[in-house]
Structure formats: C-alpha cells, structure tokens
C-alpha cells in the first residue's frame, strides 16, 4: 500500500464551479449521471486531470459534449482536457445493494443512503474526491420511493423524483442522498435573524416513537450555537435520518445529517440515560459541524482535527451547559484515559495532526477527536475566554467558505493575542502523552513546586521536545481551607520551579485542577494527602481525582503486595456518599474504579507485568469490601435516589438513577441479587431494566430475566445490541470467551451490522480478564471474526484491530499468542488496506 504524506500536499489542477448529479436508483444498477464544470486552477502548477473513482462501471464519458475514452485504473481515471473551462460528463453504474462496506451509496433495510467521509464519494462517481475541492451541488433523484433527500434546499419534485440544490460550496465528502420509506418527525426553528427553518428527523416505520428526543436536542443545539458562538443556520431545511447499518456514529453532511440509529433513536423504554446523553451530544456535534467542518472545512485529511477536535470541544461545552459541567469533565477524563492514553502510548500512537497515512479511515481516532479537543481546551485556558471568543470570530470571518489548515487556526490566535504559539504547536505535531512529575519543598513560609515533563518515544518520534502545559494549581491549608486560589502555571521547560510565598503552614497542593492538560500526573503524594483532598478540595475534578488515585493506589497494592483494601479509601468514600449536598451523579462517579485495562497500564509503567486475573481479583475484592463498608448507608442511598416523577433523561434524574444503580450493584454483592430481581420485576425504563439485569448476571443469576428480556425486545435491534453486549460484559473471566463464542451462533447475531458486531466483539475486548484468558482463546475468537468481516466491511474490521494495541504490556506467553493472531490476520489473502495498515502498525 502507498503512504501519503502531508509534506507532499499540492492543490488540484482544476477548480469546480458546479456539480449536477442525476441518480436513477435501482438496487443493483443505480445510474449516476454527472455534469461538472471545471476550469484550470490558477494556483496550481500540475495540470494532470485525474478523477478518483473506485468500483464504478463507466458507461460513458464526455468532455464538452465529445465522447472520450479515459485511462482507467482501480483508483480512478486520467483524461486529456482543454486548457480552458470545460464540462465533464459521465454516466456510471453502481451496485448499492451489494455495498457491504457501507462507504459510498449503499442500502440498509431497503433504504438507500450514503457515507462519503472520508473517501466514499469516489464510489459514487468520478470526481476529485479531496476536501479542498469545493463546489455547489444540484442533485436530481429518480426513484420509486416516497422520500427522496439530498443536501441543501428542495427545489422541485414530482411523482418518483425530487431535485435538491445546495447553494453552499462543499467538498464531496459532505455529499448525501437518502431514499426510502421514511416517516418524519417534524420541527421548526427560527434563527436569530428571523429565518424559518423546517426540521425533520426521518425514521423507518416502527421507530416513530423514538424521534422526539433527537428533535429537541437539535433545537437546543441550534439555539446554543447562536448564543455561544454567534453561529446561525444557513439553509431552509435541516434533515436528520436514522440508519441501522452505519460505520460511524453519525455524519454531518450539509443539511442532511445521517445518523447511526443508535446515535439518534431514543425512548425511555428502550434507551438508557447514558444513551440519551450521548444522543444529545452527537446531535449537537453533527449540527455544530455546519460551521466547524462544513462552512470551514479541512484542506486535506491531515487536518482532520481542525474540524473534529474543535467540534468535540464545542459539543463538550454544550453538554456542560445542558447538564453538569464537573460531571461532564470527569466523564471526558475517564474516557480519554480509557481510550486515548492507550493509543498515545502504544504502537498506534500518532500526532493530533498526523504526517502520513495509508488509509485515512484509520485516523478517525480518539487522538484526533478527544486529544484534539483537549488541545483546544488548553489553548482557551492559556489565552483566556475573551481572547478565545475573539479568535473564533476572526476564524469564522476570515475562513468562511475555505478549506483550512492548523496553521490558519493558530494564526487567528496569534493575531488576536499577540502570543507566539510555535511551542504550543507541538501539541499538534508531537505524539505521546506527556508525563508531568511533581517535587515539593517547604521552607520559611515558601512552598516550592517543581514540575518536570517528559514524553516517552513513540513510533517515528524518538526525541520529544518540551510542550506548553497549563497546570492549574490551588493550595489548601491544614484545616482544609483554600489558601491559594487556582492559578494556571505554564510549564514550558523540561523542568520548572514555581514558588508560593507568605504561607503560614505547609499547604497541600491540588494539582492539575479541572484536568487542565491531557497528561499523566506523577505525584507521589501520600494516601493521607489524597484523603485530605477527597474531603476538602473545592475543585470538583480534583476531589474526584483524589478518590480515584486512592482507589488506584489501593488496587495496585492489593495486586502487588497482597495488601488489604485501604481504610483511607473506604472511609473517604463513605463520607462522600453520605454527603447529600453533593450531586448524586458526582457521588456515583466517586464509586467508579479505574478500568482493569488502566490498572494493567499502570503496572506496566512500574515495570511489573500485569496479570489480568490478579487485577480482576483485586477489583472484585475491593468492590466486595466497599459493599460491606458502606452497607448501612445503602438503604438510604436507595430511598434518596428514588425518582417519583415521570421519566426524564435530564441530568437530575439520570444522576439519581446513576447513584441508585451504583448502590444496587453494591447491594447485590451482599444479598445475592434479591433486590436486583425485585427492581427488574418493577422496572419501567431501560436504565433500570439494564442495571438490575446486569447486577443479576454479575451475581450469577438472572437466567430467567435474560430470556424474558429477549422475548420482550427481540423485535428491537438497538435493544438486542444491549442484550448481546450485556452477557459478554457481565460474564466472569472463565466464561467470557465461551459466552461470546456461543452468542456468535445465535440467529440474531447479524455480524454484518456494525452495531451488532461491535456489541459482541467490543464487549469481549472490554472484558479485560476474559479477553486475556491464558490459553489465547479470546484472541483467536476475535481474530476469526476480524478475518471474516474484513472482506465485508474493512473499516469496522480495521478499527477493531486496535483491541490488540496493548499487547506488549503482557507476559511473553500472551504476547506470543497475540502475535500469532496478528500474523494470521496479516497473512490473510486479500486483506484490506485498512486492516493491513492497522495490523502492521500494531506489530511494529
Ligand atoms: N461523522 C464523523 C463525525 O462527525 C466524521 N465527521 O465526527
Ligand atoms: Zn465530527
């Protein structure tokens, strides 16, 4: 496979003035007729006329009306064209019904739909399929289906056809088409300048009851983007369509967002509180792309974080505003550590702006999205809120309608603040998670904090330079009062010293408040200090972090020294749980433990080879000890968290349910699942149903409930995904692989559906001790299925290969077993470019 480099970027030799497309829909032979106005690009020197095109059957091609015979390869075509404006016409035939890769135009349950990001448009017609080529589109759809949708505004329609005009120039990756039997949930929004926008959320018959929440989330997003960023919507209509077979979460196509049905359909009976929150965030995310992504897009795919990092940052701000900011921040930190840190510290490590790739689909990663968002958070922290707003205004003003780079982005900040961001730019270029270590000194009323930073080498980057790290620090006095309020220390050197003078007593520092930078903090503080912060820190993030660090410390000691659970942790937790002034959602988060995979990473960092079974046992023991320690409080937690009102998926109710669920999980460890069975019997929403069922399964019970759940929900694909996932997640280490393997034989295991595949295989990987079963059966099962899925859907396969990215942490036996599976995948004849790249990077 060829490697593409950022440094090789050159503009395309031609500009596109307009695109006209006609689709004659037929499942196995859809005809796409294109008429495209090109003219030479004065900014380009290379005039090669190459159009991308893959898996297309070219019927006819013409330039200025004259039929031509272009030179065709598997990647596209080359033709000789005039050195003046000209009209390109082509007719191609494609086969949506057999498009199982779900890229380009494909079919899902009888519905036609598209996914063009990153490079799917080239499977629809011949085109310069690159984000810096932007054009207006006119689309005519001929098809015998009631609903025919494309981007932009509807311009005309009749029996069996519809025409759409998108007046905003866009790259081809934002093209979309949907045709099917769909039902609209309508809505309306008036923009701040008085433009009326017709909103529709389209679902398949049967899903009508699941569209109201998404519609409300859309309206809230539209309003929020006006209020906070001054961004108004720019078309007469905004359509969202739910599709069952989809590789990603959702897609921001101009005026026609297409969503994985799991990321938009919601009802109290079928969706959990977590589902509702995620849906609200994804609707916002895709809507926000209209400005950060669509109006201002990326020059090339190396700049993907330009739109994704910024849009994730914006959707996180939105969720913080709609719900609880501290809870959102903690969720994001948990998520970053669980998904991005392993990526950044393993063989798949890459910069937020990569410099090369083979398959861009492999770079829709947590690094580009979530670390990309963290980088923006740090920038905002360093320049301040006001300067951030000013810079964003300038960005929107200056770059509207353009395809931009990270340099353009940083430039607006440099201009508005006068700050030199050349060192800050290392956050975009340097991969790996910086580690910040802390040394303290106390003398004569002066507290001295010495911070040092280092980043381990990552593939292709041996030497790391110091980065600008904003470290938010506050100091607490001996009685728990804050003696120095939060201050952002700018760590720019490898080692730097900060002094706090005039203190009456040695303070306790609260470092990296609000998780002010995506780094690993190495601070050898004592558990007494952590317990002190857990009791007194006024920074909600660090208060939670203190509990988390205590939990991690005690778990690591239990694993390596056969220690018993620390009293500091158990007592601290008990006081937090007792404190009814604290948000229930926050208290629920306090009850969380580091994931077993994170503990494996922490052991590996200490030079200890992690034993997944020992980690599992320690986590179980600590859970059991916690249950016993807080036993007397459990009845109160249950009654305090009862929701005596109709179900609402808002922060308040879901916070109560989260704490109630955590309490139920502990109770089930003491009563063997009696209370969980009662709750299951009375459950009237999916959160409750799923929580109580998982408690039962964890207690080794729940067989009857599991069967009843199946009977109740077998008609609902999204709930069935939960049914598959739950069994594998809740299985004990010895039965995980067996359970997963048996479920692959279940008639409802529609493995070609990405959601179902991920529900089962993703849960297998997520069950740490189960997946890492000593004999390698978990690795083999996953590899079997990756090999099977690859020819069908390379994108989903390649992404799941990352399950093996942490393989070098484990013992020689497991390493050998994993390597064997990686080699087996690598040697599969005809393995996709996607999976080939992933496996070879993981093998290193
Ligand atoms: N659909 C993906 C997202 O919104 C890719 N753009 O992040
Ligand atoms: Zn996005």
Helix content percent band = 40-55%
Structural class: alpha+beta
Query: What's the N-to-C terminus distance?
Result: 16 Å
The CATH superfamily of the domain at 1-99 and 115-175 is identified as: tricorn interacting facor f3 domain
What bound compounds does this protein have? diaminopropanoic acid, zinc ion
Let me know the number of strands: 31
Enumerate the spans where pLDDT stays under 50 for 5 or more consecutive residues.
none
Radius of gyration, CA atoms, in whole angstroms:
27 Å
Please state how the strands of the largest beta sheet are arranged side by side: 6-5-9-3-2-12-15-14
Shape: globular
Average residue pLDDT: 98
Give me the CATH fold name of the domain at 1-99 and 115-175: Immunoglobulin-like
Question: Would you give an account of this structure?
Answer:
The structure is a single chain. The protein is an alpha+beta fold and 844 residues long. The strands form nine sheets. Strands 6-5-9-3-2-12-15-14 form an eight-stranded mixed beta sheet, with no helix packed on it. The site of zinc ion has 4 residues, from α3. Diaminopropanoic acid binds next to β20 and α2.
Question: How does the SSE layout of this entry go?
Answer:
Blueprint: E1 4-5, E2 14-24, E3 30-40, E4 49-52, E5 57-63, E6 66-67, E7 71-72, E8 76-79, E9 86-94, E10 104-108, E11 111-115, E12 135-142, E13 147-150, E14 153-158, E15 161-170, E16 177-180, E17 183-190, E18 196-203, H1 212-229, E19 237-243, E20 250-251, E21 256-260, H2 273-288, E22 297-298, H3 304-322, H4 325-344, E23 356-357, H5 366-383, H6 385-399, E24 403-404, H7 406-417, H8 426-429, E25 435-443, E26 446-454, E27 469-476, E28 482-491, E29 495-500, E30 508-511, E31 520-522, H9 527-536, H10 540-561, H11 567-578, H12 584-590, H13 596-605, H14 612-629, H15 634-640, H16 651-671, H17 674-682, H18 686-698, H19 703-713, H20 717-730, H21 736-744, H22 754-766, H23 768-771, H24 777-789, H25 794-800, H26 812-826, H27 833-843
The structure holds diaminopropanoic acid and zinc ion.
Domain Peptidase M1 membrane alanine aminopeptidase: 213-427
GO molecular function: alanyl aminopeptidase activity; metallopeptidase activity; zinc ion binding
Keywords: Aminopeptidase, Hydrolase, Metal-binding, Metalloprotease, Protease, Zinc
